[in-house]
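Listing S7. Sequence submitted for prediction.
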Amino acid sequence: MTDPVLSSGSRLPDSVGEAAPGVAAAALEREVLALWRRGRSHMAASARAVDPKLDPVCYPLLVLLRDADAIAMADLIGVLGIEKSTLTRRIDSAGRLGLVERIPDPYDARARLVALTPEGRRRLEEQRVETFRRWRDRLALWDPDDVRQLATLMHRLGDILD
């Protein structure tokens, strides 16, 4: 097995994790931060693909709504980890672009749910198709088992970060 190459271009020897857990943790931190920076850039590009005026911080909201018919604001606040006023601004911003709407909650007349508009859902699906195409192209040379293992390991890492 070859030593993994870090985003800095240096190599992390296989034995580092056993000999010096602090060094391995520092390398992991660097890689997570590099991935986070790339992720922010990807999120901005994805937001622009949906609408050139869409603030990138609104993109995670749209992705959550894509996988549901409608979601209560309280649930969105919990999942996104943001304050109610911040969520309201994001909903208003995406709403002005015609991407989301507030609809009555059928179980609570006082509450409103947030949903993608049909136009928002269409645009997000177009962007998703293109994103998946790029992922397939980039990972075409990878062994499918490596892709599955990466997804599994990322999920495990996410679990311990929660």
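Caption to Listing S7: primary sequence and predicted structure tokens for the chain studied. The beta strands are 71-72, 100-105, 108-116. The chain has two domains: 1-50, 51-161.
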